[in-house]
Amino acid sequence: MLWEMYWNIIDGVPDLNLPGRGYRQNLYDLSQPLAGNQIALRLVMDGMKIQPCNPTFIDQRDAILEADRVNNGGAFQCHIWKAFAKRGLGVNAVDGGTFPLDDNTVVQEDFTLPCECATASLTNFASSALGTIATATSQHSSGLYPAIGAINGNHTGSDWGNGGGWNDGTPGAYPDELEVNFGLARTLNQVRVYTLANNWQSGAEPTLETSASGEGILDFKVEYWNGSAWAQVPGGNVTGNDKAVRVFTFDDVTTTKIRIVVTAARNNWSRIVEVEAFGCS
Q1: pLDDT at 209 > cutoff 90
Q2: Which of 51, 81, 260, 281 is disulfide-compatible with 123, CB 3.0–4.6 A?
Q3: Span of 120-129, 148-157, 176-185 with lowest mean pLDDT
């Protein structure tokens, strides 16, 4: 299973807009962003650090999945699931508990993938095209950076300053909040936050490595409404951000709205190009 996962990640790195980084012969070369084989080995090692004593196969699977959420924002969840589910450790698998097992132990193979991995694409519910609305604690006085611009489907920044993306209206004062209201209950398992990249004028598609060290948001939280209060999504407290894209992957939550709470930003302004909230249709 680990060998399968190893190659899934190597083959999958180009699919995540990181071309040429699938494999690096020198595993000890850390002078560049990690290649696919380095990412896979690190996940196994970090998973071992957080798994319980006497782990079952499911414990080990879940520890690697959690390590990916911590290390990579959950970017390789489906690569991992596909390797384990192919060998019978799918979503509904039962491993019988801790060893030693006896003749009465129930072991159940399962080859089911999570819906987000079994379908070709998830639905982005944070889209104005679906009737979703966006509001903010403030907006820039020019009117060129409205909250609704953060859910218009363009996360390249190519229409920044022309209705494409939100900029707050209180420079240097925090927190700033951007709320996305779906209008009905949606089940989510991933949120993506795009801030203003260094090279936004080029209109290039941002990747997980695209820098936002000039005008991006620095410290922020991603929260969802649990019916009575705001709750933070797993891994949703970010400090010292310098990337144009941050991906948050988590177990399903059902909610009517999410919000981004910015507590610090570069160059005085909170700038969010796009917010996406994915779930199975």
Answers
A1: no
A2: 281
A3: 120-129
pLDDT of residue 62: 96
Average pLDDT, the chain: 92
CA 60 to CA 97: how far, in whole Å?
A: 12
Residue 114, preceding peptide bond in cis (omega within 30° of 0): no
Q: What is the pTM of this model?
A: 0.72
pLDDT at residue 3, as a whole number:
95
Q: Do 163 and 246 touch, CB atoms closer than 8 A? A: no
DSSP labels, the chain: -HHHHHHHHHHHGGGGT-TT-S--S-TT--SSSPPHHHHHHHHHHHHHHHSPSS--HHHHHHHHHHHHHHHHTTTTHHHHHHHHHHTTB-TT-B--SSSSP-TT---B-B-PPPHHHHSS--EE-S-GGGT-EEEES---TTSSS-GGGGGSS--SSTTTTTTSSEE-SSTT---EEEEEEEEEEEEEEEEEEEE--TTGGGTPPP-TT-B-TTTSEEEEEEEEE-SSSEEEEEEEEE-S--BSEEEEEEEEEEEEEEEEEEEEEGGG--EEEEEEEEE--
Q: Is 79 exposed, middle or buried (0-12, 13-18, 19+ CB in 10 A)?
A: buried
